[in-house]
């Protein structure tokens, strides 16, 4: 067999990584969410330089992929601020709900800002979809439970 048909591995080549999924939903962000995107871009850019200096080609490739993702998310970000005078739940609002005798508060935020453990839920989440458009005093279904909206704050 001719060596012309044998592909020898090249140590300078890094296998192409699949791009991170950007999704098709609008990229709504809060002002805080926009600053978090900027922070991710800065942190990834610094990490690329450190990995490049260390000669870690795999890390450089992975970080470049992440940097492309965060830059794309930043370029499509649409800052949305809730109407402070609104009586209905909107994107960006913090919503207090009473369920099983306890009051829990959730803020409706963008996809990249979501952190349910911190009370930050994506506007695409089932919980947020139940809350948006509702008013204080209304009840919503959350899983098998019913909850009452007790507070809405911008």
From TrEMBL:
Domain of life from the UniProt record: Bacteria
Pfam families, sorted: GreA_GreB
Classification via PANTHER family: TRANSCRIPTION ELONGATION FACTOR GREA, TRANSCRIPTION ELONGATION FACTOR GREB
The Transcription elongation factor GreA/GreB C-terminal domain, residue ranges: 85-152
Protein name per Swiss-Prot or TrEMBL: Transcription elongation GreA/GreB family factor
InterPro entries hit by this protein: GreA/GreB_C_sf, Tscrpt_elong_fac_GreA/B_C, Tscrpt_elong_fac_GreA/B_fam
A GO biological-process term: regulation of DNA-templated transcription elongation
Organism: Aureimonas phyllosphaerae
GO molecular function, one term: RNA polymerase binding
């Amino acid at each position: 067999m001719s060596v012309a048909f044998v592909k020898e591995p090249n140590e300078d080549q890094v296998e192409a990584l699949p791009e991170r999924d950007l999704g098709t939903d609008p990229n709504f962000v809060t002002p805080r969410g926009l600053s978090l995107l900027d922070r991710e871009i800065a942190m990834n850019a610094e990490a690329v330089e450190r990995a490049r200096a260390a000669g870690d080609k795999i890390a450089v490739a992975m970080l470049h992929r992440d940097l492309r993702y965060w830059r794309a998310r930043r370029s499509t970000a649409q800052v949305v601020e809730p109407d402070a005078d609104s009586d209905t739940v909107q994107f960006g609002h913090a919503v207090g709900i009473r369920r099983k005798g306890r009051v829990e508060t959730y803020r409706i935020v963008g996809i990249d800002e979501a952190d349910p453990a911190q009370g930050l839920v994506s506007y695409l989440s089932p919980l947020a979809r139940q809350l948006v458009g509702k008013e204080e005093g209304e009840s919503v279904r959350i899983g098998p439970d019913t909850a009452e909206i007790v507070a809405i704050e911008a």
